[in-house]
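Students often ask why inverse folding is considered easier than folding. One informal answer: many sequences map to the same fold, so there is more than one right answer. In these notes we will look at a single instance of the problem. The structure comes first.
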């Protein structure tokens, strides 16, 4: 099997070692000259490798260094969301949207978190705002269409579900 392939396992070990070395170099760079981009990159590395607890302080530092960049607050919210700390995630998505109400990633993430928490009526406007930024995203179209339908707003749901059929005809909601 794949997990028993010695060459594949060695490649994984090597990749982890290179990744850890990259993080060390980024940490050294940030210590010499604190920079929001460097901290955000470290946060991204940790978050995408399943280490949100390590991502969070890096994203928080990036937000401190770049308080006018909505993506920084969105990143903090994403780390909180990955840690299942949804109410804290919402606080940071709101901070991102206070800077830029049309920030697509923050609208998307806010919608997803509110939806997950069962706060459907609150999630719908964020889905619609996210669709304005990413009109060809089938997940956004599916979620907006099904939530609107569940709230008796079928007429509003139709264009989203029609677009879903166009984008992903095999989707069960299509």
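Output (designed amino acids):
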């Amino acid at each position: 099997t794949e997990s028993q392939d010695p060459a594949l396992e060695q490649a994984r070990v090597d990749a982890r070692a290179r990744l850890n070395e990259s993080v060390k170099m980024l940490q050294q760079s940030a210590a010499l000259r604190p920079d929001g981009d460097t901290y955000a990159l470290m946060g991204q590395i940790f978050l995408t490798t399943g280490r949100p607890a390590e991502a969070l302080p890096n994203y928080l530092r990036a937000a401190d260094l770049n308080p006018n960049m909505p993506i920084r607050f969105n990143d903090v919210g994403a780390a909180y969301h990955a840690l299942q700390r949804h109410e804290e995630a919402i606080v940071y998505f709101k901070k991102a949207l206070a800077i830029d109400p049309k920030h697509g990633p923050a609208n998307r993430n806010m919608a997803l978190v509110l939806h997950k928490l069962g706060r459907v009526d609150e999630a719908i406007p964020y889905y619609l705002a996210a669709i304005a930024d990413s009109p060809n995203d089938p997940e956004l179209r599916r979620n907006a269409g099904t939530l609107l339908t569940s709230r008796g707003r079928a007429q509003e749901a139709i264009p989203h579900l029609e677009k879903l059929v166009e984008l992903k005809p095999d989707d069960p909601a299509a």
